[in-house]
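Same chain as my last thread, 165 residues:
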Amino acid sequence: MCPRQGIASGVMERSASQPALLDAPAPSAARLPAGATEELPIAQVLLDSPVPHLDRPFDYAVPMDLSETVVPGGRVKVRFSGREFSAWVLARRQEASTGARLSMITKVVSALPVLSAEVIELAGQVARRCGGVTSDVLRAAVPRRAARVELEFVPEDFAAAATTG
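reply #2:
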């Protein structure tokens, strides 16, 4: 028997019993902060940032007092890495995609859903095709917010909640 075969077979025996680095355990349930709503408590948001590695959805907890106004396609403010960012709400979910403790959405900028799922998908495709980030495409595609005009399209209960939040 060749000494190399013995080493190789020993490595193969150990590798069968030892988990690989990429065999990560399944993520545990996200820890929601106190004050998060119970119905669809997770909002997936896209940060309004030109940084390419931030061009992906992040999970945030939805506070009870903002639950009615955090809608897919709307704009919110969130804290990310100690800074406040504007963000687009992509979806509301019952479960998070991470097991980390979630931060809360701090403010609803606009309760008016100005983005549809199709527009978000198209903006992502344009960003990938042109080598940009989705938030840059959305910033160019969606007009700046005009609060006075927006109030004409938002139901009164949403408008009152948005102006007090």
